[in-house]
């Protein structure tokens, strides 16, 4: 089967400082493809910078979320396959080849998504943690019938239009618009994850942005979507092992305090119980800790495991709140 034609759509909001690097890499990765930057109401030089780097630009009058911007971009381009990149994602040089080969080899394939790489640009702890958590999750996720992620991905344009594109009305801000689209695309064919199709993430994360994103942009809207669809997928952050780790997380945090206190007091049964909880938590997350240790060293892995327990606690609480609120 001949290779499909490919166009690239990049939603951008006040990304003038990021686009030179992103567009330069995009030209290399997608040699010869039309690149469309949808300026979602920026107040900076996003549109001018995009045009200066050879992109076709669609300007929106008001700030719009990525779901609407991507829909506008897909309507603007004319290609068999549309690749999506976020404005803070620098694609590796083989991304375009992987997209073309995957869709040429499988006429039933409707979408393909990749992953962040393990080299986030910002060196801060929360940027490293969020990026590597995403990278690790996608490296161990299901390859077939995969959940869609639009940061570095591609869709067959015909299937995208057939399902109505992203639900911009429901998701006017960056949330889980790509996950929701992926569920609908499954009705049209195969959805696949290629973990080697990677991009370098340029975003800087802080503690506040991590918690806000995990709760407001992920846990709560995803819970509402799962309630509508019924059942919990055994994949990504919802794997059975991760659910068990989330249930154990508050006890693991308590055990970190209880273990030394019980040891000092000579309460050995309590100390053994706390040690057992910590051992169980570490065993459930052993691959996560092992892989982070290999990537960034044991010190980072220990800090990441500790914060990850907090992430599991507040995400589980948000999930429970969302589930109960939906039943009210």
Rounded mean pLDDT score: 92
Q: Can you say what the CATH homologous superfamily of the largest domain is?
A: Spore Coat Polysaccharide Biosynthesis Protein SpsA, Chain A
Classify the helix fraction into a percent range: 40-55%
In spatial order, strands of the major sheet run 3-2-1-4-7-6-8-5
Structure explained in plain terms:
- The chain is α/β, with parallel strands linked by helices.
- It folds into two domains: 6-205, Spore Coat Polysaccharide Biosynthesis Protein SpsA, Chain A (Alpha-Beta Complex), CATH 3.90.550.10; 236-327, no CATH class.
- 54% of the residues lie in helices and 15% in strands.
- The chain is built from twelve helices and eight strands.
- The chain has helices at 19-29, 46-52, 66-76, 95-105, 125-139, 157-162, 177-185, 207-229, 240-265, 268-284, 286-296, 298-327; strands spanning 6-12, 34-39, 56-59, 81-85, 89-91, 109-116, 152-156, 190-201.
- It has an eight-stranded mixed β-sheet, with helices on both faces.
- The longest helix has 30 residues, at 298-327.
- The radius of gyration is 21 Å and the shape is elongated.
- The model has no long low-confidence stretch (mean pLDDT 92).
Q: How are the SSEs placed, and which strands pair?
A:
Blueprint (H helix, E strand, L loop, with lengths): L5 E7 L6 H11 L4 E6 L6 H7 L3 E4 L6 H11 L4 E5 L3 E3 L3 H11 L3 E8 L8 H15 L12 E5 H6 L14 H9 L4 E12 L5 H23 L10 H26 L2 H17 L1 H11 L1 H30 L1
Parallel strand pairs: 1-2, 1-4, 2-3, 6-8
Antiparallel strand pairs: 4-7, 5-8, 6-7
């Amino acid at each position: 089967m001949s290779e499909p034609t490919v166009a690239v759509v990049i939603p951008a909001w006040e990304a003038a400082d990021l686009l030179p690097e992103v567009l330069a890499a995009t030209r290399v990765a997608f040699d010869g493809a039309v690149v469309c930057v949808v300026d979602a109401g920026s107040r900076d030089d996003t549109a001018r910078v995009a045009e200066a780097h050879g992109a076709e630009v669609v300007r929106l009058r008001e700030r719009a979320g990525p779901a609407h911007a991507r829909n506008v971009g897909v309507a603007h381009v004319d290609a068999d396959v549309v690749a999506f990149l976020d404005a803070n994602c620098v694609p590796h040089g083989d991304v375009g080849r992987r997209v073309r080969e995957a869709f040429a080899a499988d006429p039933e394939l409707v979408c393909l998504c990749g992953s962040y790489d393990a080299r986030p640009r910002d060196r801060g702890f929360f940027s490293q943690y969020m990026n590597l958590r995403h990278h690790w999750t996608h490296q161990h996720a299901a390859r077939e019938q995969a959940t869609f992620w639009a940061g570095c991905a591609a869709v067959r344009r015909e299937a995208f239009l057939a399902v109505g594109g992203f639900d911009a009305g429901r998701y006017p801000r960056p949330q889980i618009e790509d996950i929701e689209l992926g569920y609908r695309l499954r009705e049209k064919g195969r959805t696949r994850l290629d973990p080697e199709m990677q991009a370098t993430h340029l975003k800087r994360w802080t503690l506040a942005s991590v918690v806000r994103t995990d709760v407001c942009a992920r846990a709560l809207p995803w819970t509402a979507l799962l309630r509508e669809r019924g059942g919990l997928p055994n994949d990504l952050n919802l794997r059975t092992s991760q659910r068990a780790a989330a249930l154990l997380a508050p006890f693991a945090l308590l055990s970190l305090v209880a273990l030394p206190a019980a040891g000092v007091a000579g309460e050995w049964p309590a100390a053994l119980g706390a040690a057992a909880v910590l051992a169980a938590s570490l065993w459930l997350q052993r691959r996560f800790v092992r892989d982070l240790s290999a990537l960034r060293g044991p010190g980072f892995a220990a800090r990441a495991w500790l914060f990850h327990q907090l992430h599991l606690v507040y995400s589980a609480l948000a999930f429970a709140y969302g589930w109960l609120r939906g039943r009210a």
